[in-house]
Design brief:
Elements (H helix, E strand, L loop, with lengths): L6 H24 L6 H14 L3 E2 L12 E4 L2 E3 L13 E10 L2 E10 L5 H19 L7 H14 L3 E2 L5 E3 L6 E5 L16 E4 L2 E3 L5 E3 L6 E3 L5 E3 L2 E6 L2 E4 L6
Antiparallel strand pairs: 1-4, 2-4, 3-12, 4-5, 6-10, 7-8, 9-14, 10-13, 11-12, 14-15
Helix pairs in contact: 1-2, 3-4
């Protein structure tokens, strides 16, 4: 069932989004070669607890951590670990914050030290792909308009779009209807309506779009060891255009 959120619910989600943004800004300060993603996980746990919030995905279907930390060829749902980040890595940190019942979801890919030009380009194209999708998140548009904008741009730049994982509705639980694919045809799919809250979170690969699953049954990675990047915002559909409740540039 697709729910349209009340003003009060959106305000709760915005408060969660503000805290999530604070987490990402603290993570950005600490990303460097030699740190571990378990240290990032601990930082997020501490910061959320300080503000009376909880990591919503911890315990979700048995997931054991506050964040997902996906390195290089890992597409999504990477487990935080003791392995030190290396100069030249890229790492995506994805998390869902629950603050007083309001949820917000955002992923960000970080460069660790000196990333090569192709890696930088992958990150730039992925971030722009997200922006292209957000531009289409207008009341009256269809879900296919979002995916089409992302796919045509990313593939036009020589990259591929992951098909196995999509954006989604959010609130009151992590994953709500509708699914938001990052590929597709314009003028197809459900029509977006004011009050809907969705995530757009393109995962863009250097090589093939196909994924394979690790033995932990959570972590997805590329089939050809090409790197993958992801950026994600939680977005409210409003009559005045998309409202980013996880905007880092406010």
């Amino acid at each position: 069932m697709i729910t349209r959120k009340s003003k009060r619910e959106i305000e709760q989600m915005q408060a969660a989004g503000d805290l999530l943004v604070q987490c990402h800004k603290e993570i950005a300060k600490m990303i460097k070669p030699g740190i571990t993603t378990l240290e990032i996980d601990a930082l997020v746990e501490k910061l959320l607890a300080k503000h009376g919030a909880t990591p919503e995905q911890k315990g979700y279907n048995g997931y054991p951590y506050a964040i997902c930390a996906s390195i290089n060829d890992e597409i999504c749902h990477g487990f935080p670990r003791d392995e030190k980040l290396q100069d030249g890595d890229i790492v995506t940190i994805d998390m869902v914050v629950n603050l007083n019942g309001g949820l917000a979801d955002s992923a960000w890919t970080y460069a660790v030290g000196n990333v090569d030009e192709k890696g930088k380009r992958l990150m730039e194209v992925t971030k722009t792909s997200l922006d292209k999708g957000i531009e289409q998140a207008q009341a009256g548009n269809r879900i296919g308009d979002i995916g089409h904008a992302i796919q045509t741009y990313a593939e036009g730049e020589g990259f591929s779009v992951v098909r196995d994982f999509t954006g989604h509705g959010i609130g009151p639980t992590i994953h709500e209807d509708p699914h938001i694919p990052h590929f597709g045809l314009p003028n197809k799919g459900l029509r977006l309506k004011e009050g809907m809250v969705i995530t757009i979170e393109p995962m863009i690969n250097e090589g093939s779009w196909q994924s394979k699953m690790d033995q932990n049954n959570w972590t997805a990675r590329t089939i050809d060891k090409g790197r993958s990047a992801q950026y994600e915002h939680t977005i409210v559909i409003t009559k005045d255009g998309p409202l980013l409740i996880t905007d880092q540039d406010k």
